[in-house]
Amino acid sequence: MTATVWWTIAGCTVVTAVIKGVGPVALGGRDIPPRLIGVIALMAPALLAALVVTSTFAVGDRWHVGAHTVGVAVGGLVLLRRGPLIVAVVLAVAVTAGLRAIT
Amino acid sequence: MSSTSTPGDEQRNASLRAGFRAALPYAAVGFLLSMSFGILARDSGFPAEAAIVMSAIVFAGSAQFAAVSIIASGGTAGAAVAAAALMNSRFLPMGIALGPSLPGRAAWRAAQGQAVVDASWAMANRGDGTFDRWFLFGSTAPQYVMWIAGTTLGALGGDLFSDPSRYGLDAIYPTFFLALVISEVKDRTTLVIAIVGGLLALSLVEVAPAGLPVLAASLVALWGLRRGRTA
Asked: ipTM value of the model?
């Protein structure tokens, strides 16, 4: 078990460093082609929304709606009303834990 | 060095400080998130020091959660690393976008690319295809420190709160990213892209390995080719 853990850590270290390192050198120092500027601007909303949705409406590789979905929705309301992130997170956690305690 | 500072130095220091300040809320939430990672890693059979070392040298939250979950369910190290690679695959297009904003030789650009984490990358993006690299470094610094601090607390104090989901800690991760999405949605186009990207990823969850649905969502950004903003 311990060997598996350390091999996992070593492997994750290498793949993360390689993936983060390859992107910045992929264009070989050339400027971004102008046509791609619009694509770059849209990449953040697409990628980040995908992370939110797959962690809110799924658990692992199964669609799943549960207490944490409600908690995240409450946190989202705080954020939309321009509340601080930390308040949104604490409320999301509290609502999720509360729902799990009573169900 | 302050006696010989140039306007360039001042600009750099201002960007570093602005990045640092902007990242503080994300660093605070990252602390809670990495605490839940530390607890999960301990519950999954990781020694406390392994969890802390992993946060210090991997420093990629979603990949760490994916790898530990696979080990916990009895998977091999190879399967765990493959899942981590897929979760991290989004850093490839993010790094390509960042590349032209980094100076220096290839090896130096690759080294600077290690500073990319989601919140820093999104906030350092000027929206015109360029990035403020000092803002990126300044905002990654506090997130890195808090990531290790939270993991340490979770891994060493985890016996106090085993089963992180019981305490609702699994709501932290999506709320963290939701805050980033809300700050990125500036107009109708970005709103539609976020919704379509999210729906595309969700539609793939049950059929593609973890990480791939998120990477696939980046394809939605190709819509930017058609916006006719090429001047």
From this structure: 0.90
Closest by Cβ to B95, choosing from A20, A52, A58: A20
Rounded CA separation B70/A60 (Å): 10
Report helix, strand or coil for A59: strand
User: Chain B partners of A49 at a C-beta cutoff of 8 Å?
Assistant: 181, 193-195, 197-198, 201, 217
Residue A60 has pLDDT above 70, yes or no: yes
Instruction: Count other C-beta atoms under 10 Å from residue B107's C-beta.
Output: 10
Chain mean position to CA A9:
20
- All residue ranges of chain B with pLDDT < 50 are 1, 229-231
Say how far apart CA A50 and CA B217 lie, in whole Å.
6
SS3 breakdown of chain A: % helix, strand, coil, rounded to 5? 75, 5, 20
Q: How many CA atoms lie within 13 A of B53 on its CB side?
A: 14
Distance CA A16, CA B200 (A): 25
